[in-house]
Write a structure and sequence with these properties.
Shape: globular
CATH superfamily: MFS general substrate transporter like domains
Number of helices: 18
Distance between the termini: 25 Å
Strand content: under 5%
Largest sheet: none
Oligomer: single chain
Order of helices and strands: HHHHHHHHHHHHHHHHHH
Number of strands: 0
CATH architecture: Up-down Bundle
Number of domains: 1
CATH topology: Growth Hormone, Chain: A
Structural class: mainly alpha
Helix content: over 70%
CATH class: Mainly Alpha
Radius of gyration: 21 Å
Length: 441
């Protein structure tokens, strides 16, 4: 393969004057970006709790709601992630993030004013465009602020925002949706994000870094990453894992409403607690364990992800199919969400290890493009379609079979490809560190 050209030594434009980052400030940046991630998932996931009232008002099918929650968001989110990540790798990541937060928060608030299902669809796409500016530059910034041996832990703490956001999103959508309706819920949840956008823009410093090589186009980075077998297997594993995760996050609230007759406020409270606490414990635990074990052998990052993926299968079967009471189901779902959250730190750390430093934002965007187009589109759509097909025979209980089919099987397949990733992971990491101009200590 053609060797990568050495990068020029001039710092990138739009960065703050070089200054050593103290440990305290590094964790402040982590806190700010964690809040960004939390708000991202609050705005993204409130729709899943509000599926029933929105469906009733606009008189649409489960399949249509699956497309609204999945396809309308994921397509634009994934495609816009590439140019926004390229912009972040070449300019100020802080600014890209702050503008993105402002855009998606505005679109979320305006969703409450939609008068047709088509308008709701377009605004949901706007949320996806804004949120495309969140994860790629955030991962890249954190990889600059934290050394390799602490990276999975830092990215796991960042990933805890997913579950904190899901928890607060469930709380807000459940309580506000029941008390004030779904429209006011979108407005109330969207507006606070504008204050966070201003805070990030004013207080997060953009560290100095070397400029990317002139020919590192999107296609150039894509060819480089896809030439690494470890990256290819990692993307396949993450795609199956994401199918399970998206399916669970989007359709589990509806599952508890249909199967156990829980109200919106009950769903918001109990799923919020279970998802927030279980997911946060799993995310932090997965990062700490993989960083600890990975000191001796980097393959442990893949092995940890494989272990939690295969254990998630029986937990999902218990949560959706083999329990007859909401209490037992929620207990099993706690175990499932803990396990599904534990792969975040190892997955994202492997992604950053396999990419050269000046490619990191783009590497995350490529991952999100591949993973989201498969997991984020197919999972929610499949469950919505399966519910419509199974309704004549099983009634509303058909969602039980749809959920375990999409989730249990996918987590098991993901574990196989995480193991395949481990076979060439060390070589892929060595290749990414081979350029002396950008090699990490």
């Amino acid at each position: 393969m053609t060797a990568l050209p050495p990068p020029p030594h001039a710092p990138t434009p739009n960065v703050d004057p070089p200054a050593p980052a103290t440990a305290a400030y590094s964790y402040y940046v982590l806190l700010m970006l964690g809040l960004v991630n939390m708000v991202n998932y609050v705005d993204r996931n409130i729709l899943s709790v509000l599926i029933t009232p929105i469906k009733a008002e606009f008189q649409v099918s489960d399949e249509a709601m699956g497309l609204l929650t999945g396809l309308a968001f994921i397509i634009v989110h994934s495609l816009f992630g590439l140019p926004l990540a390229r912009l972040a790798d070449r300019t100020s990541r802080r600014t890209v993030i702050a503008v993105g937060v402002a855009v998606w928060s505005t679109m979320t608030a305006v969703m409450g004013l939609a008068s047709t299902f088509g308008q709701l669809l377009i605004l949901r796409m706007g949320v996806g465009i804004g949120e495309a500016a969140g994860a790629p530059p955030s991962h890249s910034l954190l990889s600059d602020y934290f050394p390799p041996e602490k990276r999975a832990t830092a990215l796991s703490l960042f990933g805890m925002g997913i579950y904190a956001g899901t928890m607060f999103g469930y709380f807000a959508a459940g309580w506000l949706g029941e008390e004030f309706g779904w429209r006011l819920t979108f407005v109330a949840v969207g507006v606070p994000g504008l204050a966070l956008a201003a805070l990030v823009g004013a207080t997060v410093r953009e560290p100095a870094r070397m400029a990317p090589a002139p020919d590192e186009s999107i296609l150039f980075v894509l060819r480089y990453l896809l030439s690494k077998p470890a990256f290819v297997f990692l993307m396949i594993a993450a795609s199956f894992h994401a199918t399970a995760a998206y399916s669970a996050i989007i359709w589990t609230p509806t599952f508890y409403g249909r199967v156990y007759g829980m109200t919106l406020s009950q769903i918001g409270l109990w799923l919020g607690l279970v998802s927030g606490i279980g997911g946060a414990i799993g995310a932090l635990g997965g990062g700490l364990i993989s960083d600890r074990l990975g000191r001796s052998d980097k393959r442990w990052y893949a092995w940890v992800a494989a272990c939690v993926a295969v254990l998630a299968m029986p937990a999902s079967l218990a949560a959706y199919l083999f329990t007859d009471s909401p209490r037992a189901s929620l207990f099993a779902y706690f175990g499932f969400i803990l396990l599904i959250g534990a792969y975040n730190g190892p997955l994202h750390a492997m992604n950053q290890f396999l990419a050269k430093p000046r490619m990191r934002s783009m590497s995350v965007a490529i991952q999100l493009l591949i993973v989201n187009l498969i997991g984020g589109v197919i999972g929610p759509w499949f469950i919505g379609r399966a519910c419509d097909v199974l309704r004549p025979e099983y009634g509303e209980a058909g969602i039980r079979h749809a959920m375990w089919a999409a989730i249990g099987v996918c987590t098991c397949i993901a574990s196989v490809f995480y193991l395949a990733t481990s076979r060439t992971l060390r070589q892929g990491i060595a290749d990414a560190s081979a350029d002396p101009e950008v090699a990490e200590a």
